Amino acid sequence: MSTNPKRSVTGPMYIEATALCVTADVTPLVENNVHDLLDLLMEEDFFERFMAIACTEPTGVHDGHAPEKLAVEELVAELVERLATKVSLTGMQAVRVADQMRTLGAARAVPAQRAEDGAA
Questions:
Q1: How far is CA 50 from CA 72, 78, 108, in A?
Q2: Cα separation, 75 vs 83, whole angstroms
Q3: pLDDT by residue (tens digit) across 52-106?
Q4: Which pLDDT belongs to residue 1?
């Protein structure tokens, strides 16, 4: 089993635009990750570590090297390793997303960005 699974998009994928950027709505990935995260936290090892961190009294030290801070960072790293960070699209979904992003991105590109894109 891969430590970093991919999720397939089962519903529509939305591409939104604001005045300055184009955003891909990855709600299906986030929903899957929340479910997976809750499942992982119910596993004995993760649950015990999470509860130990949650029940630890803060030391008042905020230098980023406090034991509870390191424990949180280690737990985060292991959970992220087990959660999906990529979304698989069908060929047609990928084409539609690419078309939407190209259209919306081109409309928002400033002249300096267009020059950089052409030079690259």
A1: 8, 12, 43
A2: 12
A3: 888 876 665 555 566 667 788 888 888 888 887 777 778 888 888 888 888 888 8
A4: 39
Residues 28 and 9: beta-carbon distance below 8 Å: yes
Amino acid in position 22: V
Backbone φ, ψ for residue 15 (5° rounding): -115, 125
**DSSP track, 14-70:** EEEE-SS-EEEE-HHHHHHHHHHHHHHHHSHHHHHHHHHHHTSPP-S--SS-SHHHH
**The residue type at 81:** E
pTM to 2 decimals? 0.57
pLDDT in tens, 15-57: 777 777 777 787 777 888 889 899 999 999 899 989 988 887 6
In the numeric block, which tokens belong to residue 107? 């409309």
Report d(CA 99, CA 27) in Å as an integer: 20
